Structures are given as C-alpha cells and as structure tokens.
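Supplementary notes for students who missed Thursday's class. We covered one full example, reproduced here. Read the sequence, then the structure, then the short commentary at the end.
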Amino acid sequence: MVKLHNERGYINITRDVFTYLTGDAATNCFGVKGMTVRSVTDGLVHLLKPESMGKGVHITYNDDDTISIELHIAVDQGVNIPVICESITDRVRYQVTKGTGVCVARVDIFVDSILLG
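Structure (token representation):
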C-alpha cells in the first residue's frame, strides 16, 4: 500500500487500484489481446478474462515511494512487439501517475503468447 500525505491528511492507495489502472491501460493498447498468467500445475500460459486481468499484473513498492510494474500479456500475430511494448509502457506510466499521483519507476513487460487473428 502507498501512503500519500497532503495538507488535509493521508491517502492510502492499495495494490488493487494500481492493478486495475495498469490492466486497463495495457489491454486498451493496439495489438494487445489480453493479460496472461502461467499455470502452476501444467506450466501453460492462459489468457485471462477481463474481470481477472489483475492476475497478469504484479506491483512492487519501492523505498523511494515509487512503484515498479510487471505485466504479462498476449499480443496479436504480426504486430511489432517492441513498438507495442513502448506504447504500453508510456500509457501505463501516464494512467497510473495521472490516476494516483504515484510515479512509476519501471514497467517490465513479458509477452507470453502470440495469438492468431
């Protein structure tokens, strides 16, 4: 949890807020099919439903009051992966910072799957 202080008091922002903002930003980028998670039992990558996209996002709180974000995604076949990842990084940084006021130190993106059409 991140604790922000202003002249009126304290604001506590939970991991769920960062997860929602990050998942929403990433899945609305061109070429992204959705968030993914690797199954512990069979080791396969599974595409998550929109209501479960938080499982593909991992938030780490840093000592300098910033956060680091790890995303696991699936993309469309034929897209330029470096360009998509740069777009996702920019969008996630912008939406999280705009929505919470917390700076994003890192966005690490793992492309776990490429899906057809």
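Commentary. The longest strand covers residues 104-115. Residues 4 and 101 are 9 Å apart (CA to CA). If anything here is unclear, bring it to office hours.
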